[in-house]
User: Fold this.
Amino acid sequence: MVAIAGNLDAVQQHIAAAAARAGREAGDVTLIAVSKTVAPEGVEAVLAAGQTVFGESKIQEAKAKIPAVSSRARWHLIGHLQSNKARDAVALFELIHSVDSVALAGEINKWAERAGKTQSIMLEVNVAGEASKFGLKPDAVEAAVRDINALPRLDVQGLMTIAPYSDDPERARPFFRQLRALRDRLDLRHLSMGMTGDFEVAIEEGATFVRVGTGIFGERGKHHDQ
Assistant:
C-alpha cells in the first residue's frame, strides 16, 4: 500500500507538470483513480492518501464494492453502460462519463426522475472512429446534445473519449485536440480524456478529467487503466 501512495503522488506531480506546461492550474484537472478489479481495501489505501474520486467500469462490480468503501469516496462510471443497468448507474454514480446514445440518455433520465435526482453525465465520442469502441460519431454530437438537453433530469457536463492505444502518447494528441474543439463549439465545461499512458498529453490539450488506473494501482491485465 506504500507503493500505491507513492504512485499516486507521482501521478499528481505529472498532472501538475503537464498543467504548468499548458499554462493551466493543476486544480483544474480532476484525477479519477480507476479502481476496477481493485478490492475495497486497495481503494481505502488510496483514499487515505488523499484521493477521493474513483472510476468503475462494470455495474455489478461497483454494486458490491461501493457499499464496502468509506462514504468519503466519490464514484464515476467510466465504462460502457447498457440501458438495462441505467437504474443502478443513477443510484451509484455522481457522474456517468459514457453516455453514447440519446436512447440511453432517455433511460437514465427516467430513473433519475424516479429517484428525484439530477444526474450529471458526459457524452462519449468515438473520435477515431474505431469499430471496437463505443461512442457517438463526432458529427452526431451536436444533435445529441440538443436532444438530451431537453431531458429535465440530466445535466450534460461535457465530452469523453478514449484515444486509440499506442506506445507513443503523442499519437493521441490529434484526437484529444479534436474533442476539445468539439467541446468548445458546443460550449460545454468538461473533457474526460487521457489514461495512464497519455494523460499528460490530454492535460496539455485541455482535459479536465483524467482516468488513471495502472499508474496508481499497478498492472492488472491489459488496458485496465481506462
Notes: The domain at 2-217 is CATH 3.20.20.10 (TIM Barrel).
